[in-house]
Amino acid sequence: MKGFTQLSVSDWFYRNRYIAGFSNPARSLYQAVRELVENSLDACELAGNLPHITVDLKLVSERKSPKVYRLTVSDNGTGIPPEHVPQAFCTVLFGNKFELKQHRGLFGLGAKMAVLYSQITTYKPIEVTTCYDGRTEYSFQLQMDLKNNKPIVLSVASRRLRKPRTGTTVTLYLVGDYDRSLGSRTTGELIIEYLRLTAVANPHSTIIFSDPYGVVYKFERSVDKLPPLPRETAPHPHGVDVEMLKRMIESSRSTTLQAFLFKNFDRVGPKKALEFLKWAGFDPNKDVKELSNEEIVKLANALKAYDKFLPPSSNILSPIGAEELKAAITKLFTPEFVETVTRPPRSYSGYPFQVEAGIAYGGPVIEKMCSQEGSSRLLFRFANKIPLLFDERGDVCRKVVDSINWKQYRIDDATPIAIFIHVCSTRIPYKTAGKEMIADVEEIEDEIRLALMDCAREVRRYIYRKLRAEKEQERLNLFKAYITEIAEDVVRVVNEDKQKLIELMWKVVAKRGRAK
Fold first, then answer.
1. Does residue 13 contact residue 116 with C-beta atoms inside 8 Å?
2. How far apart are CA 108 and CA 13, in angstroms?
3. Which segment, 107-111, 193-197, 265-269, is predicted with the most confidence on average?
């Protein structure tokens, strides 16, 4: 029948690449850097190595338009087994990020979209050099078969390494525009800002960026300790739907319904499974494979409705850490005062999440940035340790920041502060595939507000102490200006040594000032 056809996944994303952030040369250049750097961070943490990532961007075209860049990103991560390299870079939705676990990526697109964009703008192959076992290094030249969502291996070579090491280097060519404006900043400024904020959210990382003009930016690590790795978890009963439940039943080896529940769900033990099944009206000894479609629907609805399950496990997440976040902010922004907090884990719709926040006050860097932005309250957002630089207006973080009455914390419109908000979860509720906006989930919104209020109270105490010290200093300065004249008048009456009297008077005034 004419008019009907089927697209492969890669073909669909080729036609709709803008939803993943590859909408124009400037934004695509930024997005390609971001995707490759995030893959490198994941690989380094998985290897247990403190990340050392280099990003090299060079203009290679001689004509003014289109501008072709060569982007190379290297890391000291795990490397990739050679048998998986072609699919890892050239098969859309192929990857190791589909389990229920905190990941920087979400859709398994990442580097593949950068490769896709590279191919459709320059048709040059991607070059991948990787070492997985520490001994043999493999080099690939790859392209994508977009119609069939398959890799095309143009060449592969291997060599033995003299010095053992692991890691991956990716080089691709793409049309971009480093100097074009994206909003109030150029693409280049956004890339530098992204890497700087990545260093804030990943204080254990060192990132070195060489821009097309040969300028090198180095963001060195603030701490020498790797964060705990996030762990995979089983689904929480409140987070399953009918399709997921049906798939779990099909793949389960359990025989009874009770055993199926406590072996396959987070926070469900044998006793809790029995209590739930009695409440929901199911026979605990019923063979789970014999459930009808109607019974599966009833079971899924009952799992969501039962309110006596414990919240999802919280020890599977990997937050930045309050002290680590404070160290990174202090190193990169040199504020006058900074307070950070990590909130206890909570959950929404069966997914655990955790909110961290920081407020940095004053200092020349923040004051200058506030002046450039025309705002006294800078907002920096992070999700699973990724900086979010676009679509701030639609993000729940901006919504919460705008809803807080900052004046009650002695923070008025002229007080320069920088606000940092990080949300980590096994499922960040992004509004779009571009992963730039966190949705208005009530539980997350509440936690962000509480985290900011915790920080703001400490900022208020600091500002109060600072203002009090300034007033006391003004009082002392005033007294100092008249102390000589007062001493001369007193000497005439009591006939005492003038210098001794001045020292005594100053001592009394200073002591009273400290007492206040």
1. yes
2. 12
3. 193-197
Burial (0-12, 13-18, 19+ Cβ within 10 Å), 414: exposed
Instruction: State the residue for tokens 């499922």.
Output: 427
- Give residue-wise pLDDT tens across range 460-486: 999 999 988 888 888 777 777 777 777
Buried b / exposed e along 195-219 (16+ C-beta atoms within 10 A): bbbbbbbbbbbbbbbbbbeeeeeeb
Token readout for 188 is 């280049």
DSSP 88: H
- Contact 157/48 with Cβ under 8 angstroms? no
CB 427 within 8 A of CB 379: no
DSSP 387-434: EE-S-GGGSHHHHHHHHS-GGGGT--TT--EEEEEEEEESS--BSSTT
C-alpha span between 71 and 68 (Å, rounded): 10
Q: What's the confidence (pLDDT) of residue 334?
A: 94
**184-228 pLDDT per residue, tens:** 889 999 999 999 999 999 999 999 999 999 999 999 999 999 988
Could you tell me which residues come within 8 angstroms of residue 85 by beta carbon, excluding any fewer than 6 positions away? 128, 130, 138, 140, 142
Query: For residue 406, what pLDDT is reported?
Result: 94
Nearest to 445 by CA among 404, 388, 387: 404
Buried b (16+ CB within 10 A) or exposed e, 470-495: eeeeeebeeeeeebeeebeeebeeee
* DSSP bridge partners of 65: none
Identify the DSSP state of 176.
E
* 347: nearest Cα among 297, 322, 316, 312: 312
Q: Which residue has the tokens 């739930």?
A: 276
Dist. CA 399–CA 436, nearest whole Å: 14
- In DSSP terms, 182 is beta-bridged to 185
- Which amino acid type is present at position 156? V
Helix (H/G/I), strand (E/B), else coil: 155: strand
The whole-number pLDDT of residue 515 equals 52
More confident residue, 297 or 489: 297
CB atoms < 10 A from the CB of 385, how many?
Answer: 23
Nearest to 450 by CA among 361, 382, 360, 355: 355
Of 19-23, 96-100, 181-185, 254-258, which range is least confident?
Answer: 96-100
How far is CA 192 from its chain centroid? 16
pTM of the complete model: 0.82
Cis peptide before 66 (omega within 30 of 0): yes
